[in-house]
Structure formats: structure tokens, C-alpha cells
Amino acid sequence: MAGVPGAADVAGRDVWLVVGLGNPGPGYAGNRHNVGFMVVDLLARRMGGRFKAHKARADVLEGRLEGRRVVLVKPRSYMNESGGPVSSLRDFFKVDLDHLVVVHDELDLPYGGLRLKLGGGDNGHNGLKSLRRSLGSGEFQRARFGIGRPPGRMDAAAFVLRDFGAAERKDLELNVDRTADAVEALVTDGLERAQNTFNT
After folding, report:
1. pTM here?
2. Percent of the chain beyond pLDDT 70?
3. Quick check: is 1 in a domain?
């Protein structure tokens, strides 16, 4: 490929960066805000690999999903600083922006809802705000995992930092599994086909 115009672009299109958003540490592990970590942890088990620390302040696993080269990412920064590690890894692996998939919790979808989309605003989500700021764009793929709105007058910030409730946990494994399936479909079949299959 050396000397071919656009060769670097072609190389970048061969790699997918799949980022789960969350907060590091066991105290946050079961939080609604950490569902992105849950999904990429499941994808890591499917790939049969282990995360390793990367100099970009993230845990990273390189491997293949259905024949596609995929880099799974869990930033080791807190949610509101996720953009720095993700931007560094995007540069390191030379990933096109439309080959970046971000898995995150979504207040505006009911619990168990799932929506794949390209681009959009941050809707007050601190992880997405940080990503848009660091990447200079919001035109990346999103896998939005519905967590619903907080009950009563509970503050949204407090709600997302609480663990899933007992009733939610009954279906949590199934919903995480379905979101992981959707991410695989997005990578292998493209956004439109994956949306047709998985969007609720």
C-alpha cells in the first residue's frame, strides 16, 4: 500500500474503536452510568482476551469480532474526562471517526431500550460532552442503552450513580447481551442494518 494515495485512510478504516463509558473502580461497577463498561467487558469475554493498561490512560484489548479488527476501550479517567484517553487512542490506532463506537447509558430511553445512531448532541451526558470537546466533533457511532428517567424529583446525577434496582437487575444480563450483539452487528453489517434489527 506504500505510495498509494489515501493508503493511510484505508488502513484507518480497517480498525474499529469500541469505547465503553463508565467510572473506574469497584465502587462504581454496578452503577447505571457504568453500563458501557459492562457491555465492553462482555465483548472482551467473547473475544477471549484480557484488557491491558495503555499509556493513553485506558484499559485496552485488541482482537477480532466476526473477522473485523476491533480495539475495546475502557477509559481509566472519570466519566467527565473520557475524551482525553479516547482522542489519544483514536490517534494512536489511526481510527476514522465513523469507526468509533461509544456505548453509554441514556436517560431519554426507557430501561431496556436500545438505540444505535451516528452523531447527535450530548444531552447533558458528561462523557459525551468530554468526547465531543476532545474529538472536535460528535459524529461518531453511539450505542445508547436506556436506563429511563429518575423517579419523582431525584436528581439525574444521583440517579445515574446508583446501582440498578432489583427489578432492573433481573433483565440486566439480557439487556447487556443484546447491546453487545448490536455493537457486533454495527461493526460487521453497518449502521442501517444494525438499526433495523436492534433499535427499539
Report:
1. 0.92
2. 94
3. no
